[in-house]
From TrEMBL:
This is Glycosyltransferase. It comes from Perilla frutescens var. hirtella (Perilla citriodora). It comes from the Eukaryota. Keywords: Transferase. The lineage of its organism: Eukaryota, Viridiplantae, Streptophyta, Embryophyta, Tracheophyta. Pfam families: UDPGT.
């Protein structure tokens, strides 16, 4: 007998920063009584399984009573995708949709249930076509803040006004619905670059497709981005349901082996450790690595530094770094970041501002030192430093640093935004100064006070009567009704 429960087919985007919230969304839906069929690409599954020794990563979730089925599908390729990124990206545009189509067809044919619907990452280009082909309710999941979603969503408007591509200009934009104002310097990197034509094609096609989605979920908190969310909701049903990292079930999500840092961390005093990580993709230039390493040496602070294989080459670290930090530093290739950030010994996070890192830092009450690299990192930095006031810039002009000491608010003067994150060259002395300011200075105390306020907002949002829980329950009701309506209209 067929089940009447809504059944979500979830196809995950293959990058680490997308996998974590996507898995937690699956767990959250299943905990509300939905059936889930969750699909990873085979090569993604192989990495996760190898690191976790789990063939079925959702086995523990099922044993706890959640109705989650797990499957994989092959892209049919036999080359290293990271080493052949452009070739892989072209396949994602033109070849992968057919593979997903076959996956969905196989799932639908294997079960008589008529309550299927589709949940896909907003960065995927294929959901519109597949949802229409099989008559599925189409749900798009944006794993980042509403601000960056809105900028991509209003790309044509930004083009019409001449602000995309940015081409090095610094101008205030105040016409995007729901965004009071933003400087073009804070746009995602893909709106700055003019040469990344294939990547642009991928992103822009994805955001053209999302405009046909029946529902959009966003891993943010309504109180943080109320105006932006409200404006988007007037366009399409848009639900702020974050943060989505608090699921109780343990499901493997890491593409890399995780070091166990607990014993080392627990040997340090509260608030004494700086956590340094630039995520799963960013690769700092050699001068940045040397400045940070030199700053760690000068500051004398305890630290954990995540240095992925291949991120640092021979000669990148300054002479004497290893010997000079042996007693107070721990270098690991990868770790369970949310566990580290929730340890009370962590005093600050030097971060690339990936959205997972931002959200996990806030949840742990850990102020941030920001050094964004590309994509949404740049726009997230604006939220962290300018809007929420829970972090500082690692690299900025001396004049701007002086202005921030004098001013209570970020000020705008003509077309100049007086809070610049240059992302340019920096010295080890500057890095040490920023570390000391956040770890032990008055600025750090102020940041910790502010981040506790935002953390409380997060906690309230996911409480039983909180905004995210309310929005999630509203989505469940709305999507369930839409599935039933379509079932009736097709009979």
């Amino acid at each position: 007998m067929a089940s009447n429960k809504p059944h979500a087919i979830m196809v995950c985007f293959h990058l680490q920063g997308h996998i974590i919230p996507f898995v937690n969304l699956a767990l959250k839906l299943a905990s509300k009584g939905f059936t889930i069929t969750f699909a990873h690409l085979e090569f993604v599954h192989q990495h996760i399984a190898a690191n976790s020794q789990q063939t079925d990563i959702f086995a523990a979730a099922r044993s706890s009573g959640l109705d989650i089925r797990y499957t994989t599908f092959s892209d049919g390729l036999d080359y290293d995708r990271s080493a052949n990124f452009i070739r892989w990206l072209e396949f994602c545009l033109d070849g992968l949709p057919d593979r997903v189509d076959q996956l969905v067809a196989n799932i639908l044919q294997s079960d008589s249930c008529s309550n299927y619907f589709l949940i896909a990452d907003t960065m995927c280009v294929w959901p519109k076509k597949i949802a229409q082909k099989y008559g599925l309710v189409n749900v798009s999941f944006w794993t980042e803040p509403a601000l960056s979603f809105s900028l991509y969503y209003h790309l044509e408007l930004l083009r019409e006004k001449g602000h995309v591509p940015v081409n090095g200009r610094r101008e205030i934009v105040d016409y995007v619905p729901g965004i009071e104002s933003i400087n073009t310097k804070d746009f995602m990197s893909y709106l700055h670059d003019t040469e990344l034509q294939l990547l642009h094609k991928f992103i822009f096609r994805a955001f053209d497709a999302v405009k046909s989605a029946d529902f959009i979920l966003c891993n943010t908190v309504q109180e943080l981005e109320a105006d932006t969310i409200s404006a988007l909701h007037q366009k399409q049903p848009f639900y702020a349901i974050g943060p989505l990292f608090h699921a109780k079930n343990s499901v493997a999500t890491s593409l890399m082996p995780e070091a166990n840092c607990a014993d080392w961390l627990n040997s340090k005093p509260p608030g004494s450790v700086l956590y340094v990580s630039f995520g799963s993709l960013a690769r700092p230039e050699r001068d940045v690595i040397r400045a940070i390493a030199g700053g760690l040496l000068l500051s004398g602070v305890n630290f954990i530094w995540v240095i992925r294989p291949g991120m640092v080459e021979s000669g990148d670290l300054p002479e004497g770094f290893e010997d000079g930090t042996r007693e107070r530093g721990l270098v690991v290739a990868w770790c369970n970041q949310i566990e580290v950030l929730q340890n009370p010994v962590i005093g600050a996070h030097l971060t690339h501002c990936g959205w997972n890192s931002v959200v996990e830092s806030i949840w742990g009450g850990v102020p941030m030192i920001c050094y964004p690299f590309f994509a949404g990192h740049i726009t997230n930095r604006k939220l962290v430093v300018d809007d929420l006031r829970v972090g500082i810039n690692l690299s900025e002009t001396k004049e701007v640093a002086e202005e921030k000491e004098e001013e209570e608010e970020v000020v705008r003067s003509g077309k100049r935004w007086n809070n610049l994150c240059d992302g340019g060259s920096m010295s080890k002395e500057e890095v040490a100064e920023k570390i000391e300011a956040v770890m032990s200075g008055k600025r750090g105390q102020e940041l910790r006070q502010e981040i506790q306020k935002v953390r409380t907002t997060f906690q309230n949002a996911i409480a039983a009567d909180g905004s995210s829980e309310h929005n999630f329950n509203g989505f469940i009701q709305d999507v369930s009704q839409e599935i039933v309506r379509r079932c009736h209209s097709s009979t």
